[in-house]
C-alpha cells in the first residue's frame, strides 16, 4: 500500500488558531518540521558531526534551527537573550560543547517549532509593525520582520541540511 503524498503545508489551508497575517510564518515552520523529521528518519547518527567539504555538519543545522527560532521569537516578544541562549549560540556546531544525540537535536527543534506556533497564536496582529530591538546593539526591526525572518532563516537551513544529508548519504 503506497502512502499518499500530502500537498505542501501552505496548500492545506489555514493553521487553526494562527492569526491570518501570520499564516505564512506558521506554514513555513510546519513545512520545515515535516522536511527535517522526514530527512533525518533514517540518517546514520555516525554522520551527525561530519563536515563534508568544509560545509556545516548536520548537527550544527539542527542546533541552529532550534536556536534561531528561540532567539528571533525572543526578540519579537521584546525581550533580551538570556545567558543560556547566548551560550547555546556559542555552542552551535561544537560537538564537545554539546551532549545531544540525533533524537535530542530533533526533539529540541520540534519543541521549538511548537513554542513558536504557540507564540504566533498569541500574537496580536495590531502589534506586527511594533519596533523591536535585535541584539546588544538593539538594531531596529519589527515584530513581523522578526517572525518572517525566523521562518525564512529556518527554511534556508532546512535546505542546507537537506543538501548536507544527501552528500553524506551518497
From TrEMBL:
Pfam families: DinB_2. InterPro entries: DinB-like, DinB/YfiT-like. It comes from the Bacteria. Residues 31-161 form the DinB-like domain. Signal peptide: none annotated. This is DinB family protein.
